[in-house]
Amino acid sequence: DAIICVGKDEDQLMKDKYPEKEVVYQPNGVNTQFFSEGNGAEFRTQYGIAPETKILSCISRIDPQKNQLLLIKAFAEFLKTQPDSKLVLIGPVTIESYHQEIIALIKELALDEKVLILPGFKPGDLMLANAYKAADVFVLPSRHEPFGIVILEAWAAGTPVIAADVGGIGGFSEHEKDILLFKDNDEKALLKNINALMSSEELKNKLVQNAEHKVKDYDWSEIAKQTLHLYKKLIAKKSKS
Questions:
Q1: In whole numbers, what is the pLDDT of the chain averaged over residues?
Q2: CA separation for the pair 9, 61 (Å, rounded)
Q3: Average pLDDT, stretch 43-50?
Q4: Please, which residues have CB within 8 angstroms of residue 59's CB and are 6 or more apart in sequence?
Q5: Confidence band (pLDDT; 50, 70, 90) for 37?
Q6: Alpha carbon of 98 to those of 53, 65, 68, 92, 187: distances in Å?
Q7: I need a surface site. Which of 2, 80, 81, 196 has the fewest CB within 10 A?
Q8: pLDDT at 9
Q9: Which residues lie across from 181 on neighbouring strands?
Q10: CA atoms 123, 67, 189, 52: torsion sign
Q11: Strand partners of residue 224
Q12: Are 106 and 72 spatial neighbours (Cβ–Cβ below 8 Å)?
């Protein structure tokens, strides 16, 4: 009776392919309260990271799709001017061979003391919210993302976001308004965005304020209302036929 798409690119593809169908763009949601209540200081204490150390984080599964290798290379360059920084990668390993590539690159670039890899936290674990709060910048360098729900999580935590402009990400975010976007797999553009955010409190505050305002529309309570409205509409249509 209807096709629900979480990404605007998929939404358009389905509308083109099934013109007779009702196709609805219905994005993912987030528990804004949960992520807003994180404690960054608690995360830093737990993992021995000093309050003054700058943290770049990426929370996503360890998988080639997520492209953590690109982030590590950009981080290595960033360290040359900002040595008191740490890269935190959080997520379950889904491709072990890729995990080993990451470990090898960290050793090759002598980043053993600068990169922390943690397994993914279970849903509802407050340490996940703490991790977002602790980060100075959240980076999602993915090669593809149908939506990118972790961006909503970072927004809800009040953490500025840099992401690759792939998949559905551009459908709900705005470059230089609530996020900094860069071209897929472009290390120089990623590094430029990291430097821009880390050196400008004005830019950081602008992105955070706009994102915190926007993310309210993506709270699960709002998304549930939209989904319920669609079902009621479809049921009413069925009843008349």
A1: 96
A2: 23
A3: 98
A4: 90, 91, 120, 128, 131, 132, 138, 150, 153, 154
A5: very high
A6: 28, 10, 9, 12, 18
A7: 80
A8: 85
A9: 163
A10: positive
A11: none
A12: yes
Asked whether the predicted pLDDT for residue 241 surpasses 80, the reply is no
pLDDT at res. 8 = 86
Give the pLDDT of residue 123.
Answer: 83
Amino acid (1-letter code) at residue 99: H
Give the angle 213-214-217 at the CA atoms, nearest 5°.
110
Nearest CA-CA partner of 106 in 86, 129, 132: 86
Task: State the DSSP string of the chain.
Answer: -EEEESSHHHHHHHHHH-TTSEEEE----B-HHHHHT--HHHHHHHTT--TTSEEEEEES-BSGGG-HHHHHHHHHHHTTT--SEEEEEES-BS-HHHHHHHHHHHHHTT-TTTEEEEPPPPTT-HHHHHHHHH-SEEEE--S--SS-HHHHHHHHHT--EEEE--TTGGGT--BTTTBEEE-TT-HHHHHHHHHHHHH-HHHHHHHHHHHHHHHGGGBHHHHHHHHHHHHHHHHHHHHH-
How confident is the model at residue 85, as a pLDDT? Answer: 98
Q: What is the pTM of this model?
A: 0.94
Query: Can you tell me the distance from the alpha carbon of 147 to that of 129, in angstroms, rounded to the nearest whole number?
Result: 20
Q: Could you give the strand order of the β-sheet that contains 115-118, starting from the edge strand earlier in sequence? A: 115-118, 85-90, 54-59, 137-140, 161-164, 180-182
**Residue 169: both structure tokens together:** 């990400």
Q: How confident is the model at residue 240 (pLDDT cuts 50, 70, 90)?
A: confident
